[in-house]
């Protein structure tokens, strides 16, 4: 969404003053190779993700006036494969109805809205900061824009807004999909501390269907950026409801929770009330999925955290997106979990890997000379038949370390960036993040996607995901393994990853 609530209460003059302050020195060493970043300026939530005529469209919360959050626009980028991105002109600018907050986009194949057959239609929140000061309960409303040239140019609907706030302070982030059960469009909307579902035959007139979540799930902060979609498991269809939360995540600040359940076209019913997280790391937020990619369900998140997003030491841009991830379901015991794995397109960037069989680790083993690669932009995979406690240490000549591993006593995976480089820009940045291991299988597999200033961990075939950004003062060049207990990896593989 937007997200610094204190900024929303500040004057536009304050925001402008922040934007006009001298930018810090450029940091090309932190520019990722295969994660999307804007060329310059501020970015947060992914918006309007839709696939059309062989092109993935990514819109995003964007402030072209500075490197901190400001009046929101929809930036735009396109890609044939979700890893090679071309930044496009800004799609949507603020107007008299307000800033352009988060939302979604669909292909209107049947011309239900009357804009044209196969029109791309964006559904977004108009946020009016002036109105919010005098009437906070009516400052956020849902509006439309459409494109008749495959997303190159956009026109706002003259009848905006199409769904006005019923008197709720937080009324935003519409995720719209076609629902075959209703033969209508379904809107999943974040409404303060719950989700509200609406339906429409034409994207213009909306009827409330139901509410969900007032007393379920994590409620440490406001609910935002929801998504609802079906996934199959063992021949049965379940529905997954994603709800992003800020703050209140499992490791502090922003995070993405989810519920697995059933949806009858009107009401979502979870299988149970257990709180589950799509990513346990500190730096995945506002994650939602692409439209029009069936049978695949592809997910992308903002790779930062509102605890320190405005302070991260990159220039002349701030923020990147995660890698795209393909979602699925898996049952462990009595629980059904959402799984996420790197989309196959990311793996196609890899060079021929160096593979090390039967690596025994006791105390410390330096893998650097055997992996034949010093690039920080890599994919590392580790497989063991008997998981035990260990640490994978990514280091550099300055003695800085990013430590990823497994704590056998606590049955937790972890990422520790307390000694990873520059951690001084925010007291909430440093430290160790943990994630529970969700399977009791004796063996484990771990895949890490490392870029210039980020690491994404996928464990146990995607049951656990963790994302963290970090800012070393020198390039990461060494790879070591540590284990006091000792264990053997059947295979360790290292491949360099290219990109833009």
Summarize the structure.
With 500 residues, this protein is mainly beta. It has helices spanning 5-9, 12-20, 129-134, 344-347, 368-371, and strands at residues 41-52, 55-63, 73-79, 86-92, 99-108, 119-127, 140-147, 155-156, 171-179, 184-191, 194-200, 207-212, 222-233, 236-246, 255-263, 268-270, 276-277, 285-289, 298-302, 317-318, 325-332, 335-342, 354-366, 378-384, 390-395, 401-407, 412-419, 432-436, 444-451, 454-459, 464-469, 478-496.
Q: What do you see in this structure?
A:
It is a single chain. The chain has 500 residues and is mainly β. The chain has two domains: 338 residues, Tachylectin-2, Chain A (5 Propeller), CATH 2.115.10; 147 residues, Exo-inulinase, domain 1 (Jelly Rolls). It is 6% helix and 49% strand. The protein is built from five helices and 32 strands. The strands form six sheets. Strands 23, 24, 25, 26, 27, 28, 29, 30, 31 and 32 form a ten-stranded antiparallel sheet that branches.
What is the topological layout?
Layout: H1 5-9, H2 12-20, E1 41-52, E2 55-63, E3 73-79, E4 86-92, E5 99-108, E6 119-127, H3 129-134, E7 140-147, E8 155-156, E9 171-179, E10 184-191, E11 194-200, E12 207-212, E13 222-233, E14 236-246, E15 255-263, E16 268-270, E17 276-277, E18 285-289, E19 298-302, E20 317-318, E21 325-332, E22 335-342, H4 344-347, E23 354-366, H5 368-371, E24 378-384, E25 390-395, E26 401-407, E27 412-419, E28 432-436, E29 444-451, E30 454-459, E31 464-469, E32 478-496
Parallel strand pairs: 1-20
Antiparallel strand pairs: 1-2, 2-3, 3-4, 5-6, 6-7, 7-8, 9-10, 10-11, 11-12, 13-14, 14-15, 15-16, 15-17, 18-19, 19-21, 21-22, 23-32, 24-29, 24-32, 25-26, 25-32, 26-27, 27-28, 29-30, 30-31
